[in-house]
Design a protein that fits this description.
Oligomer: single chain
Helix content: over 70%
Shape: rod-shaped
Strand content: under 5%
Order of helices and strands: HHH
Number of strands: 0
Number of domains: 1
Distance between the termini: 171 Å
Radius of gyration: 63 Å
Length: 167
């Protein structure tokens, strides 16, 4: 073996190796890269589909969250309205109770004043009667004679008038 034979280039072998290389590249591309690219494309499409589903789910979750927040805001507003109505009702009832109590107090005071006035009149009348009988007894003793019923009546009326003016 010569050194030169190892390094030399045989054109037909070179062409055959180049053709072999292109044939292997074609076969690898057709039978290896194409299925691998299809698998990769399927995985890419699956990943894209999952991303789209996740985005759709997120949009739905955002919509649900927004609706929930609106419902909560409406519930708070409703609760505030209920509390405000309850406070207004309590205030109105309080005012009404105070007004009724004031009216009852005025009525009781008016009745008490009317009763006092009636008692005063009764006391004055009773006092007049008592004083008139005492005055008649005194007058009868002073005069020591009998007074006619007409004189008796006149004396009582004069005495009542004097007592009425004094009170």
């Amino acid at each position: 073996m010569k050194v030169q034979d190892l390094v030399t280039l045989v054109p037909w072998t070179f062409v055959a190796q180049i053709l072999n290389l292109f044939l292997q590249a074609f076969l690898i591309k057709k039978f290896l890269f194409k299925p691998i690219n299809e698998v990769l494309n399927k995985r890419r499409e699956a990943a894209d589909a999952q991303i789209r589903e996740a985005q759709t789910a997120r949009q739905e979750a955002d919509a649900i969250k927004s609706e929930y927040e609106q419902n909560m805001a409406a519930a708070r507003e409703q609760a505030n309205e209920i509390v405000a109505r309850a406070q207004k009702t309590a205030s109105d009832q309080s005012d009404e109770i105070l007004a009724k109590a004031g009216e009852e107090a005025r009525a009781i005071r008016a009745k008490a004043q009317a009763d006092i006035e009636q008692e005063r009149k009764n006391a004055v009348s009773e006092m007049k009667n008592e004083i008139s009988s005492v005055a008649m007894d005194i007058a009868g003793k002073v005069i020591e004679r009998e007074i006619s019923p007409e004189d008796h009546r006149k004396l009582i009326e004069e005495f009542i008038e004097n007592v009425g003016e004094a009170s």
